[in-house]
Design a protein that fits this description.
With 385 residues, this protein is α+β, with helices and mostly antiparallel strands. 32% of the residues lie in helices and 23% in strands. A 6-stranded mixed β-sheet has the order 13-12-11-14-10-15. Strands 3-9-8-7-6 form a 5-stranded mixed β-sheet, sandwiched between helices. The chain has a 4-stranded mixed β-sheet with strand order 1-2-4-5. Helix 5 links the parallel strand 8 and strand 9.
Length: 385
């Protein structure tokens, strides 16, 4: 049930005509308490959508009563009118819920530049319909309402001894660090304060969403939000909660990777024996963003030379002539030279595992990406809604 798996939460997903398909397009998630703590992380893109600007201000006090999300329009680069739309969205929800507008977060996703008078009216209608339809079974509908080019809803639930974390996510393109073209809402009935929620969320996103780099493109609307109700009355140890939260985030990130636009391979890039974690991330990301490598994987070609060429553009510490590369369990390169024949590597499965052994230290990192396909190009040349 995703965001309503944890106690203390109600949700809804409704259709108000923002999507030409007629599918659900406005979601509302409400925290009934007793705690109303919240934390959020946002895109690092300097070009930010109006809901991001609003939510970054609203989250400052660590109190979140509700969150309203819409698909079918990003409300980004829509000027002061668009910011007023976001403000009115929060105010309408606050009025209906009897809370402060400053404690309502807002998220939007869809085409940049969409957010006119018709958009505003439909979003406000969605707020009213959504709040009227709130229920403890509304998590599935809410997860469906935030989809854009997604082929399926993404949900995850982890239960520990007396407490639960549940989450929903959307995203299928523009998946790059600084989050991705993603909206994520995570709820928990564990007992923790806003500072603890913030620390756990940043720790979890650092090793999950921030290491999902499907196509190297960073969105304007990314937001990952954690809501805390405390309804279980159980206060887990900080490290226990952080571990469970990371599990949910990694699961959702993997689902986002598996639904990336047009992809035919899900590529896991594991960089080992690096001098530092930052070096490992930089090396992994250089490969994840290398179109030649990604095109080779699409063609089922274990072209390890493109891997070495990509990592050679980084500032990471390593000797290019002392690197091993493995593809789907076969070492194709050792000490900067050929090892096993390319025909020994089977790249026909969707799951593709690349290991890069830098041999200079003890640090490691994993980056998630996808191949570059004809379908990706077609979908992003045709997408307009």
């Amino acid at each position: 049930m995703s965001v309503t798996a944890a106690r203390g939460f109600e949700a809804a997903g409704v259709a108000v005509g923002l999507k030409s398909s007629g599918n659900k397009d406005v979601a509302v998630v409400v925290n009934r308490g007793p705690l109303k703590a919240g934390a959020a992380v946002f895109t690092s893109n300097r070009a930010k959508a109006n809901p991001i600007i609003w939510s970054q201000q609203a989250i400052q006090d660590g109190v979140v009563e509700a969150i309203v999300l819409n698909s079918g329009g990003a409300n980004c680069f829509t000027g002061s009118f668009g910011f007023q739309t976001t403000h009115q969205t929060a105010e309408r929800a606050a009025e209906l819920l009897g809370v402060s507008a400053g404690d309502v977060l807002v998220c939007s996703t869809g085409l940049i530049g969409t957010g006119d008078e018709v958009f505003r009216a439909k979003v406000l209608d969605g707020v009213e319909l959504g709040i009227a339809g709130l229920s403890t079974d509304g998590g599935v509908a809410a997860s469906e309402a935030i989809m854009t080019t997604d082929s399926r809803a993404k949900r995850s639930v982890v239960t520990r001894d007396g407490w639960t974390i549940g989450g929903m996510a959307k995203g299928a393109g523009m998946l790059a660090p600084g989050l991705a073209t993603m909206l994520v809402v995570i709820t928990t009935d564990a007992v923790l304060d806003a500072a603890g929620a913030d620390a756990a969320l940043r720790s979890a996103t650092r090793v999950s969403f921030d290491r999902l780099d499907s196509d190297g493109c960073m969105s304007t609307n990314d937001q990952v939000t954690l809501l805390v109700s405390g309804a279980s009355a159980v206060a887990p140890a900080p490290e226990e909660f952080a571990e469970a939260l990371a599990e949910v985030c990694l699961d959702l990130a993997s689902q986002l990777q598996g639904d990336a636009e047009g992809a035919s391979h899900d590529i896991t890039i594991a960089v080992t024996n690096a001098a530092s974690e930052d070096d490992a991330v930089e090396v992994g990301r250089s490969v994840a963003r290398n179109n030649l490598f990604k095109a080779a994987i699409f063609g089922n070609d274990p072209n390890w030379g493109r891997v070495l060429a990509a990592i050679g553009t980084t500032d990471a510490a390593f000797d290019p002539y002392d690197v091993d590369v493995w593809m789907n369990g076969v070492r194709v390169c050792t000490a900067g030279g050929p090892d096993r024949p390319r025909e020994d590597v089977d790249l026909t499965p969707r799951a593709t595992h690349l290991v890069i052994d830098l041999k200079v230290g003890e640090s490691a990192a994993t980056i998630l990406t996808n191949d570059l396909t004809h379908d990706y190009v077609h979908e992003n040349s045709a997408y307009s809604s």
